[in-house]
Amino acid sequence: QQQVKQSPQSLIVQKGGIPIINCAYENTAFDYFPWYQQFPGKGPALLIAIRPDVSEKKEGRFTISFNKSAKQFSLHIMDSQPGDSATYFCAASIEGNTPLVFGKGTRLSVIA
Amino acid sequence: GAVVSQHPSWVICKSGTSVKIECRSLDFQATTMFWYRQFPKQSLMLMATSNEGSKATYEQGVEKDKFLINHASLTLSTLTVTSAHPEDSSFYICSARTTGTGNGYTFGSGTRLTVV
C-alpha cells in the first residue's frame, strides 16, 4: 500500500514556467511533509517542508500548498530554470523517531 | 547544520563477497538511523531502522541475514551487504532525524554499489 501518492511521474516545462507537483496521503497521523530534490548519483536534498497547521509556505522560488481536509500537498517552482531539472520527491512522517515515507518521484525537465 | 557522512560513495565488488557501508553523524548523536535502497529511476524504499545498542527493525521483504545492520555507537551505523549478488546492485542511502528547529532529516550522500 502506497502511503504517499505523487503525480505526475514526469513533467516538462519551459524556462520561466511554474511546474506543479502534487502529493496525496491517507495517514492522518502524518505531521511533517517535506519535498526533496535529487540529482543523479546524489542523495536527496531538502527543499522545503511544511507542517499541517500551515496552509502555505514559501522559501525563495519554492512554495508548498497544503490542504489538510483533502489530505493533499503540492510543490510549486516559480520562474523555473534548466538547473531545476531533477527528480523531486514528496515525503511524509509521523511525530517521533520515525522514517520518512516517500512518493514515487517526479522527473522534471526545464527546457530553455 | 546536522551532517551525516556516508562512505564509500561508490563500490564495485565481486559476486559472493561482502561490502560494508558506513554512516557517521558528524555533529549530532543519531540514536536512530534509517537505511534506504533506491533502484534506478525509482523512489527511496526503506530497508530498515537501526537503533543504537539494539537490533535493527527490517521492513517486510528485506532479508536481515543478508543486510546486516550494526549501530554500536550514537554516531555510527553500518550496513553490510553479505554474499552480494548482481541484483543487490543499487544506491544505498542512510538518514537520521535531527532534533531542534524543524525536526527534519539529514541524509548521507549515498553509496552506489555495483556487484559484478
Describe the structure.
The complex is a heterodimer of chains A (112) and B (116). With 112 residues, chain A is mainly β. Chain A contains no helices and 11 strands. In chain A, strands 2, 4, 5, 9, 10 and 11 form a 6-stranded mixed β-sheet that branches. Chain A has a 5-stranded antiparallel β-sheet with strand order 1-3-8-7-6, with no helix packed on it. Chain B is built from no helices and 11 strands. Chain B has strands spanning 4-7, 10-13, 19-25, 32-38, 45-51, 57-58, 67-73, 76-81, 90-97, 105-107, 111-115. The model of chain B has no long low-confidence stretch (mean pLDDT 92). Chain A binds chain B through residues 32, 34, 41-46, 49, 89, 93, 97-105, 107, and chain B through 6, 31-32, 34, 41-46, 49, 91, 93, 95, 97, 102-105, 107-110, 112.
Greatest interface (CB-CB under 8 A), with counts per chain: A-B, 21 and 24 residues
Question: How many H/I helical runs of chain A?
Answer: 0
User: In DSSP terms, counting alpha (H) and pi (I) runs of 4 or more, how many helices of chain B?
Assistant: 0
Helix content of chain B: under 10%
Please state the structural category of chain A: mainly beta
Distance between the termini of chain B: 37 Å
How many strands, what sense, and barrel or not for the largest sheet of chain A? 6 strands, mixed
Q: What would the average pLDDT of chain B be, to the nearest integer?
A: 92
| Beginning-to-end CA distance, first to last residue of chain A | 38 Å
Shape of chain B: globular
Helix percentage range of chain A: under 10%
State the total count of DSSP E strands of chain A: 11
Binned strand content of chain A = over 45%
Choose one word for the global shape of chain A. globular
Structural class of chain B: mainly beta
**Largest sheet geometry of chain B:** 7 strands, mixed
> What is the string of helix and strand elements of chain A?
EEEEEEEEEEE
Helix-strand topology string of chain B = EEEEEEEEEEE
Radius of gyration of chain A equals 13 Å
